[in-house]
């Protein structure tokens, strides 16, 4: 039984400065709309306070102007989960500007560092990949970190990092799915 779930999203185009328009997340933000939907999918819960306290998501932003930047949303420490893309974007902007809300932090951690940190913290690593072992037949550790990419996926360097850390490839199906849908499916299948 999983006690703690974490998601690591590699956002290859996500802006690394709070200089994007919240009204144009898909354009000026470098697909920050995708990032925001993933944050919501990871944290929003039907619990009375609206947040999954056993879940966190680390978003590794790799877009301009100054990559990398990792923003982590830890449900255990947050006052509330964002309920929409604009609210999630406002939290991202605040973290980037040094005004992170409670439970949110921003660091200059790159993808490999984020993966290694999760491993050091005792998380078993699972790479969501179309060619992996069938998710429904997989077993997961009590602390599971699920790694996924944005619309570009994980690049070869990122895959080598995951392989070197012993990440197990698991598949939700033979086709690529939206990253936010993958998170929702994982949360539904691994409560």
From TrEMBL:
UniProt key word Cytoplasm: yes
Binding site for S-adenosyl-L-methionine: 128, 149, 182
GO MF terms, alphabetically ordered: S-adenosylmethionine-dependent methyltransferase activity; tRNA methyltransferase activity
Protein keywords: Cytoplasm, Methyltransferase, S-adenosyl-L-methionine, Transferase, tRNA processing
EC annotation from Swiss-Prot or TrEMBL: 2.1.1.257
Catalytic activity: pseudouridine(54) in tRNA + S-adenosyl-L-methionine = N(1)-methylpseudouridine(54) in tRNA + S-adenosyl-L-homocysteine + H(+)
Cross-referenced InterPro entries: Alpha/beta_knot_MTases (IPR029028), TrmY (IPR007158), tRNA_m1G_MTases_N (IPR029026)
One Pfam family here: Methyltrn_RNA_2
GO CC terms in record: cytoplasm
One annotated GO biological process: tRNA methylation
Keyword DNA repair: no
Record's function text: Specifically catalyzes the N1-methylation of pseudouridine at position 54 (Psi54) in tRNAs.
Family (UniProt): Belongs to the methyltransferase superfamily. TrmY family.
Listed name of the protein: tRNA (pseudouridine(54)-N(1))-methyltransferase
Naturally occurring in which organism (per UniProt): Methanosuratincola subterraneus
């Amino acid at each position: 039984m999983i006690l703690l779930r974490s998601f690591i999203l590699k956002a290859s185009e996500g802006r690394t400065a709070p200089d994007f328009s919240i009204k144009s997340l898909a354009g000026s933000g470098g697909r920050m709309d995708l990032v925001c939907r993933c944050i919501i999918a990871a944290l929003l819960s039907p619990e009375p306070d609206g947040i999954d306290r056993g879940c966190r998501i680390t978003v590794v932003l790799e877009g301009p102007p100054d990559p990398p930047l990792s923003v982590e949303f830890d449900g255990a420490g947050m006052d509330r989960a964002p309920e929409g893309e604009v609210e999630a974007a406002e939290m991202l902007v605040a973290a980037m500007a040094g005004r992170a809300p409670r439970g949110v932090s921003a660091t200059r951690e790159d993808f490999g560092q984020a993966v290694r940190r999760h491993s050091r913290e005792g998380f078993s690593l699972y790479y969501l990949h179309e060619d992996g072992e069938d998710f429904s037949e997989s077993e997961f550790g009590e602390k599971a970190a699920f790694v996924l990419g944005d619309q570009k996926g994980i690049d070869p360097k990122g895959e080598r990092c995951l392989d070197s850390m012993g990440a197990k490839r698991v598949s939700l199906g033979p086709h690529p799915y939206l990253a936010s849908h993958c998170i929702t499916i994982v949360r539904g299948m691994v409560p």
